[in-house]
Amino acid sequence: MKKSKRRSGEAGCLAAAIRNAAGRSGLSVYRIAKDAGVDQSTLNKFLNGDRDNLRLDVADRLFRFFGLRVVSQTGKSRKP
């Protein structure tokens, strides 16, 4: 997997979390795409930095595949 073109200030964003997890996994783009159920071409463009974003359903599949979670940084829980 080729290293992505990273922009400054991206360290805390969701896209960076996916890119970092993909890099740490050691898996090929083909294997990640197949196992996560996402389009290989779209994933490859995203990981290489040629595409800035993903549809929410695709990002959700990748978050689930890599075991990532979104956690509030405020530390306060919201009550309904």
How would you describe the overall organization of this protein?
The protein is mainly α. It has a domain at 14-66: Orthogonal Bundle (434 Repressor (Amino-terminal Domain)). It contains 4 helices and no strands. The protein has helices at residues 14-25, 29-36, 40-47, 56-66. Helix 1 packs across helix 4. It is elongated. The protein starts with 13 loop residues before the first helix and ends in a 14-residue tail after the last helix. Residues 2-11 have low confidence and may be disordered.
Write the layout of secondary structure elements.
Blueprint: H1 14-25, H2 29-36, H3 40-47, H4 56-66
Short note summarizing the structure:
The chain has a domain at 14-66: 434 Repressor (Amino-terminal Domain), CATH 1.10.260.
Q: What is the H/E order?
A: HHHH
Which structural class fits the helix and strand makeup?
mainly alpha
Radius of gyration: 13 Å
Largest sheet: none
Number of strands: 0
The third-level CATH topology of the domain at 14-66 is 434 Repressor (Amino-terminal Domain)
Shape category: elongated
The number of helical runs is 4
Distance between the termini: 43 Å
Fraction of residues in β-strands: under 5%
- Provide the CATH architecture of the domain at 14-66: Orthogonal Bundle
What is the level 1 CATH name of the domain at 14-66?
Mainly Alpha
State the share of residues found in helices, binned by percent. 40-55%
Low-confidence stretches: 2-11
Round the mean pLDDT to the nearest integer and report it. 85
